[in-house]
Design a protein that fits this description.
InterPro entries: DUF1232. By secondary structure, the chain is mainly alpha-helical. It has helices at 2-27, 33-47, 63-79, 82-94, 103-124.
């Protein structure tokens, strides 16, 4: 049982690092535009408090967190040119970003979602 928990923790840490690799990939000048676009979508969704399937729905609510996010990260990582991916991994490994919580990014993402929701509401309420 303890071994399974250790494996899950290491996979979660790897997933968190991969998210920051996608952030660095977005900034890299050699990254193709389409990959930059996918990277930012995956990162925003990973940090977003809003899910496609709300977490309060039993079992299904966590499917996006358990399946969709890792699948999206894996897909985008495969699309990144090898030299860019290696550069970005080195940057992330040297960085302290993975070790600390980024409240500024979280706040910005929440504010963006609130803005989108208000915009959608304004389309329907006239």
């Amino acid at each position: 049982m303890g071994e399974a928990v250790a494996i899950l923790k290491s996979k979660a840490k790897k997933l968190k690092q991969d998210i920051f690799v996608l952030v660095e990939t977005y900034k890299h000048p050699k990254t193709p535009i389409f990959v930059k676009f996918l990277s930012i979508i995956i990162v925003a969704y990973a940090f977003s408090p809003v899910d496609l399937i709300p977490d309060f729905i039993p079992v299904l609510g966590y499917l996006d967190d358990i399946i969709l996010i890792p699948l999206g990260i894996t897909l985008v990582l495969k699309l990144i040119p090898k030299d860019v991916l290696e550069d970005c991994r080195v940057i992330v490994e040297k960085s302290e970003k993975v070790k600390k919580k980024n409240w500024v990014a979280g706040t910005i993402i929440i504010l963006l979602w609130i803005g989108v929701l208000f915009w959608i509401a304004s389309l329907f309420i006239k």
